[in-house]
Write a structure and sequence with these properties.
mainly alpha, Arc Repressor Mutant, subunit A, 3-stranded antiparallel β-sheet, MJ1563, transcription regulation, DNA-binding, HTH-type transcriptional regulator
Amino acid sequence: MEFKEAKNKFVQSWGALGSQWGINKTMAQIHALLMVSNQPVSMEDIMDELQISRGNASMNLRALIDWGIVYKAFKPGERREFFTAEKDLDELAVKISKERSKREIKPALKVLKEVSSIEISGAEDEKHFKEQTGKLYDFVLKADNVLDKITEYRENWLTKLVMKIMS
């Protein structure tokens, strides 16, 4: 397999995996392209490489920047904007975990807390509902707290070991 074919296969595969970590295919493809590029890439080159519109590229780059996993890069003498991705895989995992918690886990916790706090009349189905949603809330809260601790203490040698084992 030649370099160009291998790069394209990686970008396409990473794009397909994007939905697994909460982003759309194009956003994941842009991230993949930037992650394996050894130099910052212009929006025009991203559009060309992925065959996407300027609006699509712009919207997804902005989202990747919001996630904290893509950065604008400055090239002396250039008027165009260039972009690069986070290259440190441990840092990338932490940023994705934090963003997914903010977008997925925290809203789920809010709903679970609300529905598990309902007043019940004493009917068995109501008791069961309240008990199960309460247990689920406790479980998700503990998992989120563990994730928070891991991301807070990523500099700790034990946390680094756990992160390596999990990846």
